[in-house]
Each structure stands twice: as C-alpha cells, then as structure tokens.
Specification:
The structure holds two protein chains of two kinds. Chain A is an alpha+beta fold. Helix content of chain A is 39%, strand content 17%. By secondary structure, chain B is mostly helical. The chains are: A alpha+beta, B mainly alpha. At the A-B interface, β2, α11 and α20 of A face α1 and α2 of B.
Chain lengths: 638, 126
C-alpha cells in the first residue's frame, strides 16, 4: 500500500505532540496537509490513536479531508494499477459477450424456439381486412368477429380426455387428427376456427386447462355468389386468394399480418368497387334463367360504362359462393370474362368494319362483292346467311357476311390488320385490377388467310374482356381505356384514354349497331324506348380439331342508347341448345340476344334511365351530313 | 417554535402522502374505466359490424326479388305507362263542388253572409 509509506512518519509525530492542544492541532493540520498530497485508500485507518481525543471540530475536519482524498482518488487514474484493472474489465466483458454469443447460437440452432402464447396467437389469428362496398355503398364483403378455440398441447394434462370432451362438443372436429396435433410439441394449435357462442359456452364449461378462445376476424360475403368472380375470396387466415380480395393484399390495403405490424382495424378504410350490386344480381339472374332455358354449358356477362370503362357487373356461370369457395381449381368455375379465351365470332366483324372505315379505303356507301364464296387455296369462306349479291358496308354488318368482312380486311392488308388489332389491345394480355388474366392465342404465322378468318372472328382467341374494351372504344367516340373494377370518373377516363378511331368511325359503328337492332340479327334485344344497338356473334366450336356446326359459342354485344352510348352489355353462352319454340335455331340472337334484351329492360330502370317515348331526333349528325344513316330513323320492328 | 415547525412539517408530509395516494388511486380507477369503456366500444363496434353484415345478408337482392315476386305482383315499367306533359289534358274550369252540394240541399240561406247595410257599416262620426 502506497499510503502506508506516510504512516510511520505521521503516527509517532502525532503521539509525541498529543500532550499539547496547540501541538495536537498543528499536527492534525499537518496530517491533513500531508493527506492532501498523499492519496490513500478508503477504510485504511490513518487516524493516530491520540487524535480520537481531539475536539469534535478537528475530527470532523480530518474526516472531511479523508473523504476529499477518497473522491480525488476515485476520479484520478493510477497508471501503475491500470494494467491489472483493464485486464479484469476485459475479462468480465469477454465473459458477458461470450454468454450472449452462446445464447444467440443456441437460439439460432434450435428448431422450435420457445414461443409465448401471445406471440403465437398474434401469428395465428386472422388479420383485419377493409370492407368491400359496391358503387352505391352496399356491402359486398365484411369482417365479423368470431371466437376460435385453441389449445396449448404442453399444458394439457390428459390428452385423450381432452380429445374426447372436445369432440363431444364439436362433432365436426376429427378426433384422430386432433389427437395427433395435440401430441405435437407445438406451443399453440387451433382446435376449430369460428365457433358459435353456444359452442364456446359448452367448451368453456368443460374447464379444460390449456384450452382457450381467441377473437378472430372472419370474412363474410352477405350476397353469396353475386359478383363472386370479381370480389374473389379469402383463405382461412383471411388472406386474399382471388379477385379483388387478392388485389387488396397486393396493394397492402389489409392488415399486413406480420407480428409487430398490426394495423388498427378502424384505420382500414372501406374499399369501393365499380360494381353495382343490383345490376350484378340482375345479370346473374338473367344469365341463370338463360342457362336453364338453353341448356348451355356455361354463361357469362358484363355490363360496362362505356365512357369511364367501369365494370358495373360481371358474372360467369357456373360460379361459387365465396363464403364456401370449395374447390378453387375447378376449371368449370373460372372467370370466363377475364381468364377464358375464345373465338369471338361475328362480334369481331365490328372491329373489321371499323378498321376498314377508319382506314378511309371504304365508306358507308361502298360495295363489297359477296356473290361467290371466297376461295383461298384449298379453303373456302361461306356466308351463314348467304345473300349471293353485292352488299353495301352496312349490309355486311347486318347480314353478318363472312365474305364481306374478309374482303374488307384484305383491303387493309395483313400488316394494317395486325397493327389495328394491336392498337385495339386484342393481341396482348390485358391486365385489370383482378389478378386473373389470360394471354390471347395469336397465330404464330399470320398470313392473308389468317387475316380473312380473323376478320370474321375465327383464328384469334381473346378474352371477352378484351373484346369488350375494343367495342367500348368503337362506340364511345373512339377512345380506348382499360376496363376497371374501381370507381373512375369521366375526367380520369379522359386522361387515361387515347384515340384509336375517329369520331366519324365511332358514329358509323353506332349507326351500324343501331340498324342491326332495327332490321338485323339483334332485333331480339331491341327493347322499345332504349334505342338499343347490338351485334350478335356465333362461333362454331372446335370439336376434335374441326369446326362443329352443332356446338356453338354465342356472344351478344349491345349498347344503349345507340346515339350517345352509356352502357355496353355483353352476354355469352357456351354450347347453348335451341329452345323448344325456336325451331332448332341456336345462334346468338336466340339465346345471348334474348338474354341481353331482358337484361336491358331490367337494368336501365335500375340505373335511373327511363324509357324514351320518342327516338332521338338527330341520332347520327356526322354521317347524316355525309348523306348516310337516313334509315336509322326507321324504327323497324320496334 | 422548532417543535411546532416539525409538527407542521410532519403533518404536511402525511397529508400530501395521503393526497398523492388518493390521486393515484383515482388515476388507476379512471384508467381501468377507460380500458373497460374501450372494450365496450370495441364490442359495440363488432356488434354493429355483425348487424350490418346481417342486414346486408337479409337485404341481398335475390332474397328481396323472391319476396317481391311472391308478395307484391309488380310488373316492369312499360312504355305505355309513361306520359309527357303535353299529353296531359288541360285543367278543367274550377267547380265549387261543395258549394253545389250545399245548394242542392238547400242550405244556401243559412250559409249566406248576413247583409250589411250602409248605415251600420260606418261608425257615427263624432
């Protein structure tokens, strides 16, 4: 001890002077002085024995100075001792960090980290999702709170008894599987999700340790299968699997369902879709009736706002109930509008004629020779309703002449045809908000024969939603815009849309569709008062590599009102049979056309459009100035 | 003097301790009430959600359609049911039907306003 070096000198000195108070005082002061310069350890008694008899003031003085010395000692660094201290400190820190490293390694290597019940529960319960509303605010999908039973296998004492009691209350729980899961080493398992309050009370009264309840979100679809293909559905953990439900997850509009990232359910704003619940129901109801009446394999339909591209209704039958989706991979239950690709048949003639008109090579007064069947190599193109005469362009449309459409497309040529179809979005995959989409089947080598057949709708398979988008652009004034399932205003649509055909071509198409409704194949859909325009399409289905005349795929497109379209209707039937009263006809007009007519009659009042008593006075001003379309005033069969 | 000061200080100490205890107790009570109320609000919100879903389920279009078809007997609007303003007949001249009925029953005399003579109508000038 360094301090003890001063002791031998200090102690005798104090003892000797103890007799005199003054001397004592001086000695004490000297010691204090000395101590100031000689650091010493706390607890070492430096007090000379005689000093105990000193006056309290002096003793206090001594203690004070001692404390001061200790303080200085504490704050100063003694180099001669630092080495050992640093080593001690380093050793201590090393041990501490080694312990942390060992623990980390152990955690990293262990397969089943010990999980608290809270963490396990947070992981397992379904995350919250925002409500889905239709355009008018009606609920399409909503979350409700339900109770789910869970178990902690390591806390259950008698597993067999627990299984027996639980399966007695919940008969639909598989006893064998539950026993297996209870024997696992997991800290948390679900016994059954979404139980009723009565079942909850019964299980609670079993009084089993290690069995508890957790509130969970359950997705409900109050309207059942109405609009199911658009809405989609979720899995057991409330994660979107299909349709707009999946879109919500893709856009991170739901609770991310990652531990530590829970979102307050109140902050999830409801998401409004462009769908109209009533219109969707009307569409589904009419399609279902048609499906039974015409004994068809499948049906599908769309109602769309042509000025904004919003889908008001989309149905594909057979469909499913999103509350219990069942087998999600059943190919008969696909969304035929977005995922199926089909030869659209004569509805494609609208595109061919629009292309010919827009190219300026023909006008509404031009004539096309349809006297003879069109031969190309070993192929011959016939007309279904053969006229054997020279047709005008409107007649090609109303008589649905294959020869006429093929000749019109040939006038534009293969590159022009391809470029036009690409511009109309028919050759590329169309993506909407729905995760489901399909690539059109485009012929790899596209020659003149391909152009001829595609002109009347054979040889090119597209998703019906693509055809809808193209026809929408043809009739709304020439602006193409991708269809959407979210609300879109006309201003937004104007920004997104771009011109593909001229105003005049668009008006010509509206005139052609209108005249087809008054004295053409679309007359079944010509509902008085709504100034309907329409186009039928009947494509022979390919059976065993050959086009079959008995198996058809029928489509119908209608617009209302034809002078200033607001809504576009599409109905599709796959393999319809002739109804008893139709004398063996199963072409589009008899099934898809009729259904579209019934649909228009039903939907227009729902959208607040009253029937007009008088047809519009000047429906087609541009082409009227050119001297065409006078016969549009004719009400025909109206 | 000092003793008194000490006494006051100790009393103040105990008093403030008691007050702080009271405040703390009330705070705990209030925060418990807050949690309870929050739970209650959440429960009510869940109940509202459930009722909304149930309402939507009961008001689903196919159910309403089935009910309307079986109970109401409504038909779609036909073009013939719509009339324009021009088609409405002109308004007939106004007829006092009640007055006529009274007349036919012979009640005119009773209902006639008593005739006022010129002499009675103006008060005498003074």
């Amino acid at each position: 001890m360094a301090a003890s070096a001063s002791d031998p000198g200090a102690k005798p000195k104090a003892r000797k002077l103890a007799r005199f108070n003054l001397a004592d005082l001086l000695a004490d002061l000297a010691i204090a002085r000395l101590r100031r310069y000689l650091p010493k350890d706390f607890g070492v008694d430096l007090e000379p024995p005689g000093a105990r008899a000193l006056r309290p003031a002096l003793a206090a003085n001594a203690t004070k100075s001692r404390l001061r010395a200790f303080g200085r000692e504490l704050l100063s660094t003694r180099l001669d001792r630092s080495g050992a201290r640093v080593r001690t400190l380093a050793l201590g820190l090393f041990v501490a960090y080694a312990a942390i490293a060992v623990k980390l390694l152990a955690l990293g290597l262990s397969h089943d980290p010990p999980q608290t019940l809270k963490a396990a529960a947070d992981d397992a319960v379904s995350g919250a999702r925002p409500d889905l509303l239709d355009r008018n605010g009606a609920i399409l999908a909503s979350d409700i709170k339900t109770m789910s039973v869970f178990a902690e296998p390591n806390r259950i004492i008698d597993k067999d008894e627990a299984v027996e009691l639980i399966t007695a209350v919940l008969p639909d729980v598989d006893a064998k599987e539950l026993r297996e899961r209870l024997s696992s080493k997991k800290g948390f398992i679900w016994v059954k999700r979404h139980i009723t309050p009565k079942e909850q009370a019964e299980i609670f009264h079993l009084g089993l340790p290690g069995v508890g309840f957790l509130p969970e979100n359950m997705r409900v679809y109050p309207n059942g299968p109405i609009g199911a293909h658009v809405i989609g559905f979720v899995d057991e953990d409330n994660v979107g699997i299909a349709g707009m439900e999946k879109y919500l997850d893709e856009q991170s509009l739901t609770d991310p369902h990652v531990p530590g990232f829970t979102v307050d359910p109140d902050r999830l704003k409801p998401v409004r879709l462009s769908l109209d619940l009533k219109v969707t129901h009307a569409l589904r109801d009419e399609l279902t009736q048609g499906l039974e009446r015409f004994q068809a394999k499948a049906a599908a339909g769309v109602v769309m706002d042509v000025n904004t591209g919003e889908i008001l209704a989309l149905e594909s039958l057979p469909d499913f109930d999103p509350n219990a989706p069942g087998d999600v991979r059943d190919p008969t239950k696909i969304n035929r509008i977005n995922v199926g690709v089909y030869e659209m048949g004569s509805t494609f003639k609208a595109l061919s004629i629009a292309m010919a008109l827009d190219s300026g090579k023909v006008n509404l007064g031009s004539h096309v020779d349809a006297r003879e069947s069109l031969r190309y190599g070993r192929f011959t193109i016939h007309d279904f309703h053969a006229t054997h005469r020279v047709l005008t362009v409107p007649e090609v449309f109303t008589h649905s002449s294959n020869i006429g459409a093929a000749r019109l497309a040939l006038m534009v040529g293969v590159p022009g045809h391809k470029a036009f179809l690409r511009k109309m979005g028919q050759l590329d995959r169309l993506r909407t908000e729905l995760p489901e989409s399909a690539e059109p089947l485009v012929p790899k080598r596209w020659g003149e024969l391909n152009t001829m057949t595609i002109a009347f709708g054979q040889g090119l398979n597209v998703a019906p939603i693509q055809a809808v988008m193209a026809v929408c652009a043809l009739v709304n004034g020439g602006m193409i815009m991708p269809p959407t399932f979210l609300p879109r205003t006309e201003e937004e649509a104007e920004k997104i849309g771009h011109r593909v055909v001229s105003e005049q071509t668009s008006e010509s198409m509206r005139y052609l569709m209108r005249s087809n409704a008054t004295h053409g194949s679309a007359s079944f859909a010509n509902i008085p008062g709504y100034y309907v325009g329409g186009k039928t399409g009947t494509a022979d289905k390919i059976i065993h590599g050959h086009y079959s005349e008995h198996r058809v795929f029928t489509t119908f497109m209608a617009i209302t009102p034809a002078d200033k379209p607001k809504y576009l209707y599409l109905t599709i039937y796959d393999d319809p049979q002739p109804a008893p009263e139709d004398h063996g006809y199963h072409t589009a007009a008899y099934n898809a056309g009729r259904v579209a007519g019934a649909l228009i009659r039903r939907v227009e009042p729902l959208m607040g459009v009253p029937p007009m008593k008088e047809p519009p006075t000047e429906p087609f001003p541009i082409i009227a100035r050119l001297g065409y379309g006078a016969d549009a005033e004719k009400t025909g069969k109206e | 003097m000092w003793r008194l000061m000490h006494g006051v200080a100790i009393a103040a100490l105990i008093g403030s301790a008691a007050y702080v205890y009271g405040v703390k107790y009330r705070t705990i009570y209030a925060s418990e009430q807050l949690v309870k109320t929050r739970h209650l609000i959440n429960k009510e919100k869940d109940a509202i959600n459930l009722l909304r879903a149930e309402y939507a389920h009961l008001a689903r279009p196919d159910r309403i359609q089935a009910l309307a078809d079986s109970k109401l007997g409504l038909v779609p609007l036909a073009l013939t049911q719509i009339a324009t303003v021009d088609e409405l007949p002109d308004a007939q001249p106004k007829v006092d039907s009640i007055g006529r009925t009274l007349e036919s029953l012979g009640f005119t005399a009773d209902n006639a306003t008593p005739a006022v003579t010129a002499a009675d109508s103006t008060p005498p000038v003074r």
